[in-house]
Write a structure and sequence with these properties.
Blueprint (H helix, E strand, L loop, with lengths): L1 H8 L2 E3 L5 E3 L10 E4 L2 E4 H9 L8 E4 L12 E4 L1 H10 L20 H11 L4 H14 L9
Antiparallel strand pairs: 1-2, 3-4, 5-6
Helix pairs in contact: 4-5
């Protein structure tokens, strides 16, 4: 495992935030890719497996630092897909109508995301936030998130 750790660390640079920024191969969603035990896996998942331990089935490796290229195991945590979406909404980069990791989703705030954030800020669960997002999509309006 030491060798794998060394091989892994050759592919990163550490930035001022302490993120291990992946500089080797990436897929277009911005995640690094790493060969581990003969399989190509997302680098942040590989990082968890190499430096922390096995990832249970159906569990995602999520970022505390919101940097998809970051593979610092200290910036990662385990969570379910539901938590992943909730986390995304909280960070304002969730779009229920496009595949997760869409190129535009990190930068542009679509009406759906506005609605979802707004609903979340009013304390609604993510399922209601998603519904709000769908309604807004249907009406084609965008409201900046507001707290009432
Ligand atoms: Zn980080």
């Amino acid at each position: 495992m030491i060798e794998v750790q060394q091989r892994f660390k050759l592919k990163i640079i550490i930035n001022s935030a302490g993120c291990w920024v992946w500089i080797a191969g990436k897929i277009d969603a911005g995640y690094g890719m790493f060969w581990l035990n003969g399989k190509q896996v997302r680098a942040h998942r590989a990082s968890w497996a190499i430096f922390v331990g096995a990832i249970p089935d159906g569990i995602n490796v999520l970022h505390k630092c919101d940097n998809k290229a970051c593979v610092n195991p200290k910036h990662l945590f385990l969570g379910t897909q539901k938590e992943n979406i909730a986390d995304c909404i909280k960070k304002g980069r969730w779009n229920p109508f496009k595949p997760f990791g869409n190129k535009n989703s990190a930068k542009k705030r679509s009406p759906e995301i506005c609605a979802a954030i707004s609903a979340r800020q009013k304390g609604k669960p993510w399922s209601k936030a998603r519904r709000a997002a769908q309604l807004i999509k249907h009406k084609g309006e965008c409201h900046e998130p507001s707290i009432e």
